[in-house]
Specification:
- The structure holds two protein chains of two kinds.
- By secondary structure, chain A is an all-beta fold.
- Helices cover 0% and strands 42% of the residues of chain A.
- Chain A has one domain.
- Chain A is built from no helices and nine strands.
- In chain A, strands 5-6-7-9-8 form a five-stranded mixed β-barrel.
- In chain A, strand 8 and strand 9 form a beta hairpin.
- Chain A is globular and about 50 Å long.
- Chain B has two domains: 136 residues, Thiolase/Chalcone synthase (Peroxisomal Thiolase, Chain A, domain 1); 231 residues, Peroxisomal Thiolase, Chain A, domain 1, CATH 3.40.47.
- Chain B has 14 helices and twelve strands.
- The relative contact order of chain B is 0.19.
- Classes of the chains: A mainly beta, B alpha/beta.
- Chains A and B meet through strand 3, strand 5, strand 6 and strand 7 of A and helix 5, helix 6, strand 5 and strand 9 of B.
């Protein structure tokens, strides 16, 4: 990874990292198994006992259970591409028992519901100084 | 809770919703409160508590909305609160006023909400001290998920599960536009055809521009009183039987604003805050939702009408589309939905949503809703929702 890239915020995913094999940082309760993204210090299951969580990583593929295509540029702090092009947002369920919201890397026409979705890192936008800001995203398996 | 005193809606007021560049949010709010007081035949000096919804688009003045209104109306030493629970804020203000009267703490209490809204999508608010890993920030910066994107994600789940069609979503807007056409306080009064709705631009696929509510300026207010006070007033009595507020429940699989994740829990209670506040309100009021004559639900998008008919217990899961296709949700149908025109026509005024619903349903129960009157309405239910899992349900009877 060149040093002109930075994560959108520390603590969301392992960084530096290969873009093709992203690891989201989640917290897991060792007592009840509850997962949180972004991570929490203590377990949020009200039937559990507010144990301190452990850091865990979510990686690999899940299933695209819903998506939308955004046709209008969202307001700041979102930085739209210039010119703006519609983009997909997906909800991906992972076998670990959590669904993650994130941008879809593929073009909107290639989105297929219930398809396989892989966690990746993707550039969100470039800052004025040329630094590329990275976020998590989904790469969908195309037919 | 059990109400110790009957709570009566003595008066309602509502400044028209739209865009009012020459008025402040306080101007709008004062107008609504004065109308509600005049409607009740009560003087401002008689009001013992004022509960306002915060208007988060106007800085500290908006956070202290109750004090701003009380200052402009004349300070009397009465108890003032300002609450924020997203779009459910005015429902919480109403709950405060309801509890004041029901508990016997006050004879007369007022709830009010007023707002001037920034243009465009509801956006991130300025933050003086950043919050680490703040999902309300990250959903914008890292995902670009405006509110309609969240609704669209839930809407598409529904399309897969229950076969909702784009025509169903458009038909909802058509029906609501006919209701709103007869509401002089609504921002949008044009009647749309299904074709016009389906030709409107996509905002967040599958939701189109005409199927999502537009942020607006406006205000609404309600005067509540006990029976002893109401007996001295001339207005037809409308009873507020219940105001119940609930948050969401751990394990709810709904992907709700502003979260970045949700449990992949297919057995969890979806939209749990809505289900919970509705059940609590029905129990408090001792009513069966099947007897409802008119319902104002939070139609932030066309999808919401389907979802909230079900979470409010007005029909079983998966049956809401049939109510739309049968036009049962139109005035004249079995279950008129949003006779005001809903947020689809009124617009979206975050701090006054629930009180606009109160204005409409009180008018309906008085038989004073004019050309949008639901004939013989006796029992009415309203619910408003707020981001992050806030719900407030009201039950009114005549």
């Amino acid at each position: 990874m060149p040093n002109t890239t930075q994560p959108v915020e520390e603590g969301l995913f392992v960084w530096p990292s290969s873009c093709d094999d992203a690891r989201l940082i989640v917290s897991r309760c060792e007592k009840c198994g509850d997962l949180s993204f972004p991570r929490l210090v203590r377990c949020k299951n009200p039937s559990c006992t507010h144990e301190l969580t452990v850091e865990a990583y979510l990686r690999g593929t899940g299933r695209l259970v819903s998506y939308t295509v955004v046709h209008f540029p969202p307001p700041p702090p979102f930085v739209p591409a210039d010119p703006f092009t519609p983009f997909g947002i997906g909800l991906v369920e992972f076998p670990e028992g959590i669904a993650i919201l994130g941008r879809i890397q593929n073009s909107p026409g290639k989105i297929r519901l219930n398809g396989s979705a892989r966690l990746v890192l993707s550039s969100l936008y470039n800052k004025a100084d040329g630094t590329t800001v990275m976020g998590w995203a989904f790469a969908l398996e195309e037919e | 809770m059990t109400a110790m005193e009957s709570v009566i809606v003595a008066g309602v007021g509502m400044h028209a919703w739209g865009k009012f560049p020459n008025k402040s949010f306080v101007d709008l709010g004062v107008c609504a409160v004065l109308e509600a007081l005049a409607d009740a035949g009560i003087q401002w000096k008689q009001v013992q508590s004022l509960h306002a919804a915060c208007n988060v688009h106007s800085g500290v003045a908006g956070l202290l909305a109750g004090n701003e209104l009380a200052y402009a109306l004349g300070e009397t030493g009465s108890r003032i609160t300002s609450s924020f629970n997203g779009c459910a804020s005015s429902g919480i203000a109403l709950r405060q006023a309801f509890v004041d009267v029901a508990s016997g703490a006050c004879d007369i209490a007022v709830a009010a909400g007023a707002q001037k809204s920034a243009e465009g999508f509801l956006a991130e608010l300025p933050c003086l001290v950043p919050v680490p890993l703040d999902f309300e920030h990250l959903r914008w910066q890292a995902v670009g998920a405006a509110n309609p994107a969240y609704w669209a994600l839930e809407c598409r789940k529904r399309m897969v599960q229950y076969g909702t069609t784009e025509e169903d979503l458009a038909e909802i807007k058509v029906i609501l536009s006919k209701h709103g056409a007869n509401n002089p306080r609504a921002r949008y009064r044009k009647v749309f055809t299904r074709e016009e709705v389906l030709r409107s631009p996509m905002v967040a696929d599958p939701l189109r521009l005409l199927e999502v509510c537009a942020v607006s300026d406006g205000a609404a207010a309600v005067v509540l009183c006990n029976r002893k006070t109401a007996d001295r007033l001339s207005a037809k009595k409308v009873y507020l039987r219940a105001v119940a507020v609930a948050g969401s429940i751990f394990g709810d699989p709904t992907i709700r604003i502003p979260f970045l994740s949700a449990p992949a829990n297919h057995d969890g209670l979806a939209n749990s805050e809505s289900v919970t506040s509705a059940r609590a309100a029905y129990e408090m009021a001792g009513i069966d939702p099947a007897d409802t004559d008119a319902v104002e639900l939070p139609d932030n998008s066309a999808w919401h009408v389907l979802e909230y008919l079900e979470s409010l217990g007005m029909c079983r899961r998966g049956e809401a589309e049939k109510l739309v296709r049968d036009r049962a949700i139109a005035i004249g149908g079995d279950l008129p939905v949003c006779p005001s025109g809903g947020f689809a026509c009124l617009g979206e005024v975050v701090s006054a949503q629930g009180l606009a619903q109160m204005f409409e349903l009180t008018s309906q129960l008085r038989g004073a809703a004019g050309t949008r009157q639901v004939e013989g309405a006796k029992l009415a239910v309203a619910q408003t929702l707020g981001a992050m899992g806030n719900s407030a349900t009201f039950v009114l009877t005549r």
